[in-house]
Amino acid sequence: MVSVNGPVLPALAKLPRAGQWAVLLAVSVAVAALLEAAALPAALLLGPMVAGILVGVGGGTIRVPRQPYLGAQAIIGCLIAGAITPSILVSFLRDWPLFLAIVLSTLAASSALGWLMSRWQVLPGTTGVWGSSPGAATAMVLMAEAFGADARLVAFMQYLRVVCVATAASLIARFWVDTGDAGPAAIIWFPPIDAGPFAATLALAALGAVAGRRLRIPAGPMLVPLVVGAVLHALGLIEIELPEWLLAIAYALIGWNIGLGFTRSVLVHAARALPQILLSIVALIAFCSGLAFVLVRTLGVDPLTAYLATSPGGMDSIAIIAASSDVDLPFVMALQTVRFSLVVLLGPAVARFIARRSPHAAS
Hints:
The protein is mainly α and about 375 residues long. It is about 70% helix and about 0% strand. The chain contains 15 helices and no strands. The two termini are about 40 Å apart.
């Protein structure tokens, strides 16, 4: 029951910190399990984020400790680095003019949408710019926070788009193109671990997080392991090994950090802007679908490969769908990786450029 003047759960603030953490953990597991059962993407991140929102709005006073949060960023960087393989580099080198044209077109379209949202004051400051960035959802949330945007509203936009894009991609893969009867693979929470690669991955995450922090790079604890790990992995010098239980912890820490920062005023603002946010998501998906149509008509790329390659969703969720479908996986992941890299590299400059030209945006 929602109270007008008091918090949603007035008893929550009276609980000791251990009790609040217990509530947060229990709700996170329950929500994540429901999202997994519904086959929704990024359930292990969205579940804790929703739980954090409920606890934060409900009067909770707990916050994610800084060091574990930085470690979680580093693990996400290693996760993305592990997706960059030599086959992806070969595919990029073969079609790099096409890749750059598609990626830059998508960035231009998303930047225009972000500029309009800032100019029309749909969202404060450069929040709309970060929230409209195509792909790299977790990275955009982390970098938006580092550059002073409202990470809570950026997260709301980014993960809403991830859900919309991945749901659309799943429906297309299931109904439009015959991909067989294979369902999603069961999660193996505690797989056998190869001690050498696992130790190397942990060392990359730890050293990268420290270096990113010391160098004062925005979102450095994530970006340093990502860049260094991607180079080493593509050259075959390191094998990235991240068991599901470790990824679940990293996703939970990031989701909690986002969710616990929500307040009722943020939720009210997000609810008021929901129609415009959904409209921007639909417009970006439609634009990327047009790019996919161009690939199909001009290069003979099969429709599902073209759609997945150009979809402005989370790279991890698109990779899962592509891996379980009869598509050109290196082509899909090469285009997704190029876009992710350019979004991460150009995002801060684009946000500041738009901020300077929007009378209502804060720099």
